[in-house]
């Protein structure tokens, strides 16, 4: 995972190799995601449902 502070984009790389950029993610959400014990649960509950995603590439 990577976060672009200037653009408020959260980049997530999945096991498949696919990369998604989640738009307008506040820095606090990114920090909470980094600190989450279960990244998958946090992603599904707090990010996927709330922020628009754009697929960047597919491996």
TrEMBL record:
Tree of life domain: Bacteria
InterPro entries reported in the protein's UniProt record: KTSC_dom
Domain KTSC positions: 2-51
Official protein name in the record: KTSC domain-containing protein
Organism from which the protein derives: Pedobacter insulae
């Amino acid at each position: 995972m990577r976060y672009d502070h200037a653009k408020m984009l959260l980049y997530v790389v999945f096991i498949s190799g696919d990369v998604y950029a989640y738009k307008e993610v506040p820095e606090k959400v990114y920090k909470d995601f980094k600190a989450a014990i279960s990244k998958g649960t946090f992603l599904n509950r707090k990010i996927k449902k709330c922020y628009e995603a754009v697929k960047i590439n597919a491996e």
